Amino acid sequence: MTVFSGLTALHALFRKRSPRNASAWVGICIVFPLFGALTYWLLAQNRIFYRAKRLRRRWPSRATLDASVAAERGDLEAVARSDEELSQMAEIERVGNAATGMPLVPGNRVTPLENGEACYTRMIERIDAARESIFLETYLFDGPRVEAQFGAALSRAAERGVDVRVLLDGLGALVDKGTTRKLLISRGVRVESFLQPSFTGRGLHLNLRNHRKILTIDGEFGFTGGMNLRDVNLKSGDDDGWRVRDLHFELEGQIVRGLEDVFLEDWQFATGEEQPLRRRPEAAPAGRALCRAVPDGPNEDFESFKWILIGAIGSARTRVRLVSPYFIPTEDLETALVAASLRGVEVQVLIPETVDHKVTQWATRAMVWQMLQRGVEVRLQPGPFAHTKLVLIDEIVSIVGSANMDPRSLRLNFEFNLVVHDAELAGQLNALFERDWEPAEPLTLSELTEAPFWKRFRDNVARLGAPYL
């Protein structure tokens, strides 16, 4: 038993990146030898990462297959409106190249779609026009209206002979007790689960969820962002009175092939089925936007999205704007935002006044006071609940996708985000930000420090669970 616990402690010492995690597990193994060692091997192993490595030895990663279409210096010059913007874009490009291995591709169009009325309608239009393939990946898919609309559209496509595949997160699919899954399967749609919870080794990873939102049609049109497929995203949707506002994006151009590749890797991971490489001709230019796909998750050995965020914030000249439904900044992210504020960059953070997870809201209150103290502005957006995820760097770079600004998204979940260099899109998103910023209520330092003791105690207790909120 002593040898077993000692070897386990040694494994934790070498394998755990965080000094806190390493010291905690070493201590547990020493104080509770058998229990600590067994718990470590049962709960603290990232088997997802090791399984992904095994699969990649068998099948090549699709991540770098489109390197031949990567943007060149002339593509950046065509988008930049000044030498300063060109320099800034080049800085972010270098970080992206080093952190992801995914190419920055030119010739794309990115169209923002607000809420379910605009987004779902456009999605179903594209699904109805599909000729070859429809690949849909989402975290939550529930509600009678959404199920009926998308179920009918996907069924029609399957009847036309289109390759229709739906990949649902194993835990998210349980929200509606599997109703959506059964409905789609009954209509001839192939549905698979990503990390279905179970009592086996693979199923024990309840914390590692697939939070990505991807839809591709024929490799020509794509959709991504923060929006799930739920009735609460529709005006007349009802879920105990809860209403959700959100922002999604339609994509055209070469970047859609990147979304398709990520979906096929996830499908391969979930099913074990080898996916043949799809050699498509280079997509015709659809717009001027330069886009980089940023898939990230516990299957990677490098936290790509975190470093892209930090690099982008560090490149800001005048302004950083951030929108997130759940805001529990990691130490790295907090440092980047405070450092930007200290060097004179205007840093604005917009979060909901009320969220659906109270403990998360309390933890946020316990963690933002240092940022407020150093000049970061935080405002609380009144309802309906805003589920948008957005980072705007000056007037040229937008970062959009599925990741919240919290440890769960930055370290535990499978996420998909986009870095977009496009002044037109940045202008549209800055206008939306300003529309929501103006009526939002400022969160002040005095409001936090002068709160009753019981509130400050509650908030700080909630903060202890921040890594898993």
Automatic annotation (TrEMBL):
Keywords from the named record: Cell membrane, Lipid biosynthesis, Lipid metabolism, Membrane, Phospholipid biosynthesis, Phospholipid metabolism, Repeat, Transferase, Transmembrane, Transmembrane helix
SUPFAM superfamilies named in the record: Phospholipase D/nuclease (SSF56024)
Record's bilayer topology term: Multi-pass membrane protein
UniProt-listed Enzyme Commission number(s): 2.7.8.-
GO terms assigned for molecular function: cardiolipin synthase activity
Localization of this protein: Cell membrane
Gene Ontology CC terms, in alphabetical order: plasma membrane
Keyword set includes Amino-acid biosynthesis: no
Superkingdom classification of source: Bacteria
InterPro entries, sorted: Cardiolipin_synthase, CLS_N, PLD-like_dom, PLipase_D/transphosphatidylase
Positions of transmembrane segments: 25-44
Chief location of this protein within or outside the cell: membrane
Protein name as catalogued: Cardiolipin synthase
Source taxonomy: Bacteria, Pseudomonadati, Planctomycetota, Planctomycetia, Planctomycetia incertae sedis
Primary gene name: clsA
